[in-house]
Amino acid sequence: MSSSTSTARAAVAPLTTADAEGLLAAATAAAGAAGVAVSVSVLDAGGHLLAFRRDDRAVLISGETSTRKAFTALQLNAPTADLVDAVQPGGPFHTLPTALDRPLLFIAGGLPVHRDGRLVGAVGVGGGAPAQDHGFAAAAVAALA
User: Fold this and answer.
1) Among 16, 66, 81, 127, which residue's beta carbon has the most beta carbons within 10 A?
2) Cα distances (angstroms) measured from residue 4 to each of 8, 13, 80
3) Cβ neighbourhood burial of 15 (10 Å; 0-12, 13-18, 19+)
4) Residues in CB range of 63: below 8 A, 6 or more apart
5) DSSP the chain
6) Looking at the whole model, is its pTM more than 0.85?
7) Mind listing the pLDDT tens digit for each residue in 9-47?
8) By the 8 A CB rule, do 102 and 144 touch?
9) CB 127 within 8 A of CB 109
10) How far, in Å, CA of 135 to CA of 108, rounded?
11) Quick check: 94 and 100 in contact, CB under 8 A?
């Protein structure tokens, strides 16, 4: 690799625990302001759980859905809200939800997290209506920026 190539692809700082805690705080604050009890999951770039919080009042399944939404957003580097139509019959990802060992979830509420244009992780929110979850995740990503 030439020195100009290595300079152009300088290392991007990974998502830290402090970043993850900030994402959790921002998403739960947005949900709290809306009166919605949620679970929030933050994954690092490798798809590993970096942080998680479930409101005591959130439905139990929201913990699983928040993690799956984050994983889906990370793997496809796209908001899950933008992928809902892709898994409908005839869509380009129609068979994808059942083709992998690790389940994906194509419901709004998962967002990739980028730093300096590079994918560094993802956040997923579950517990509200899909549009609400998407909004809470977007508030978290905006707060990190």
Assistant:
1) 66
2) 6, 20, 36
3) buried
4) 39, 41, 52, 54, 126
5) --HHHHHHT---PPPPHHHHHHHHHHHHHHHHHTT---EEEEEETTS-EEEEEE-TTS-THHHHHHHHHHHHHHHHTS-GGGTGGGGSTTSTTTTHHHHSSSPP--SS-EEEEEETTEEEEEEEEESS-HHHHHHHHHHHHHHH-
6) yes
7) 678 899 999 999 999 999 999 999 999 999 999 999 999
8) no
9) no
10) 9
11) no
Tens digit of each residue's pLDDT (9 = 90 or more) over 78-94? 999 999 888 888 888 87
- Amino acid letter, residue 15: L
- Residue whose pair of structure tokens reads 């809902």 in the numeric block: 84
At 58, the amino acid letter reads A
- Whether residue 7 is predicted with pLDDT greater than 70 in this model: the reply is no
